[in-house]
What does this fold into?
Amino acid sequence: MGKLDYFFSPKSVAVIGVSRNPKKVGHVIFRNFSEGKFKGKLYPVNPKVDEILGSKCYPSISKVPGRVDLAVISIPAEFVPGTLEECGKKKIPAVIIISGGFKEIGRNDLEDAVVRILKKYKIRVIGPNCIGIYDPHSDVDTFFLPRYKLERPGDGSIAFISQSGALGSVILDWMAMKNYKISKFISYGNASDVDEADLIEYLANDKRTKVICAYFEGVKQGRKFYEIVSKVANKKPVIALKGGKTAEGNKAVSSHTGSMAGVSEIYSAAFEQSGVIEADNLEEIFDFARVLSTQPVPNGNRVQIITDGGGFGVLAADWIINNGLKLAKMKKESVDQMRKVLPSHVVLKNPIDLTGDADVERYRVAMDAAMKDDNVDMIAVITLFQIPTLTAEITDVISSFVEQGKKPVVVIAAGGRFTEVLKKSMEDFGVPTFSYPEKAAKALGALYDYSLAISGKT
Amino acid sequence: MGKLDYFFSPKSVAVIGVSRNPKKVGHVIFRNFSEGKFKGKLYPVNPKVDEILGSKCYPSISKVPGRVDLAVISIPAEFVPGTLEECGKKKIPAVIIISGGFKEIGRNDLEDAVVRILKKYKIRVIGPNCIGIYDPHSDVDTFFLPRYKLERPGDGSIAFISQSGALGSVILDWMAMKNYKISKFISYGNASDVDEADLIEYLANDKRTKVICAYFEGVKQGRKFYEIVSKVANKKPVIALKGGKTAEGNKAVSSHTGSMAGVSEIYSAAFEQSGVIEADNLEEIFDFARVLSTQPVPNGNRVQIITDGGGFGVLAADWIINNGLKLAKMKKESVDQMRKVLPSHVVLKNPIDLTGDADVERYRVAMDAAMKDDNVDMIAVITLFQIPTLTAEITDVISSFVEQGKKPVVVIAAGGRFTEVLKKSMEDFGVPTFSYPEKAAKALGALYDYSLAISGKT
It folds into this structure.
């Protein structure tokens, strides 16, 4: 077990600084561990309290009996170095320091002390000034926000690391609502020890993670970062969003984390050279990630559109072209085959327009033909669920084609509550769904770029 | 009363082609009228039926007693000319032809017949091959999609016209879910009589409409369109999205509506010269429309950001710059004033970072200062509702500042269900809300562009 494994799969966790006050950080963290699915041993630590939520409370970490794999520290900054020293003496391999009040407010002395101690005892530390980890598989959850107020996404294959805790956590809340799933989330704050490069290297070898996503404002060690992502990005997709790209945003960064954001162009060039896929905005990170984590790599850039609404087909065609992809031209045999069974008013071009009286069978016929046709590399399916003839069974049909894993498929469906419910059910089966053509097309473009990167064609 | 008024505020409506089969178009249209808030007289017409949903059914439109302001026709295309002739004889001023089966499938003969008759009797016609009108104020609703499957948005001030019925209707479904409100929606299909230019001219004089939005793939009469929008766009915002901008999308248009989409650059140039705000995608139309319909015109392009999350503040700063706006620099007096009452760890720059322990009072102080400071033209407020110290009262505080109508305000709040509920409550008070900074910034950019257009500075 590598040392970073202790952060995500600890057999025993101590929460240092629990409180009986349900509004306090230490209380919420302990409650999340004790009420969740976490299966390991749990040790609350607080010298002033005997018992919390039915568990015996220990006066200090050194008084905890037996081995502790992970300590989560949430106490005032000035007491952190002393407590970390105790953790070292107890040979705890991994420590998350939630507490703020270090470098980010000018207390470099306290942060230096932390670094000295973690080196002395070879402890791996995440933080300080972070919200830590959420791992839906082990249910390690150090967020100090109650689950009723900030929902957690389900167990999936997208990893997300974020320098900013607030930004990362509200994105998880949004992902949970959308039914997007994650493998691991890490907010690493001041990165006094474990930094973005360490995490990306770790996630590259994590079997539960298929795509690595990152939001950061600055990088601690440029060369190390570049070398690691260059190695990782060609075997597992790495998607990054850099905050503070403009001079003005850059100034805001220095107020936010006290770090220098660096020159935007340097980052973009480094991303491109190392094979990192750069996202333009937060939503796009996960648009890309959902497609890259669920869909096979395409053989080319020819997309077949299948729609029941002409207008959406037109917009999809526009955006496919705008993103460097092409409209597929299906073989005559495929078209003839479809023509035999589909009504004459169905338009068998690209887009294939199944028209406003389309039913599930028409979609089945068209998707089957596109799947089998060698002139088609990717499929964009537009389903306006509101038309009277289309039943909810369409989600099963699409999901079963996607399950074959032969060609990338994305689904575009705009609408209200009814539509959202059907889209969520498809997300469960690994079907990436979008409300609008431009986002789906951009994500297919990212998938195609990745296919070029891993085949060495870029 | 102008003739187009009869479409939106008829005192009596005949639905020609009602059916007792609840899946049929004519049935759904009649049901929507009879079960909605529509206050006028209603006449179902069908020679084969005596009674429908408790109403006496008339064998033909000529047998309907008394005056009819609006006829909605949903019968097979071949019978439409004869029925339209009867409508003419009965002096019905406005007719919506829902039926398809005309020019779009090559039956130009039938469409020509329709045009001859409407000219002969001076009837104004919307359609054929359309889904017609939804007006939440009068509850004229000719959508043939039941309300449980496709929700209708509430009564507001955004008008939306769409050549494509399917596209328009699913967008309304999405708007209803988001709690965005509209004044009128019109799907005009083949535009055999009333076209996009007529509708824009009409909506320019409609008091309930503050912003006009349009999706179209081609324009029927280029010069007429250009002349009308040039007049309208400088007194009321007109936002347009053109489908089929690429050569490939253009080909898809000819399969979709049989019309030529024209050269994309010509449209973009015409939009710019006539003062039309061009949107890049469907969502953006309504991002722009919500801001332009609710917020005052700014005096300049200096934006003050107020946030409780540093990362979102950084991204907002980036996007404000990317959209041709500037970060405001507040006066020393304003900063001193805030400094007196706000804690020392609050960052009083731009962004103002109220930090992760912000409460409602901090927002009140910062918004009040930004509202009063002459160096600030617009305000972007970021509220991550998930932080423990921020109560739901924040929505009232923000709404009351927006109600003053002194400076444009947008709210950015990302998250899950809890966040969405609070955002919807603000939309009710005319506060435009966004999930992500890039969209809010782009919409403020559109508002600023409009301010330049009406002041003749562009």
Summary: Residues 1-131 of chain A form a domain with the Rossmann fold fold (CATH 3.40.50.720). The radius of gyration of chain A is 25 Å. The mean pLDDT of chain A is 93.
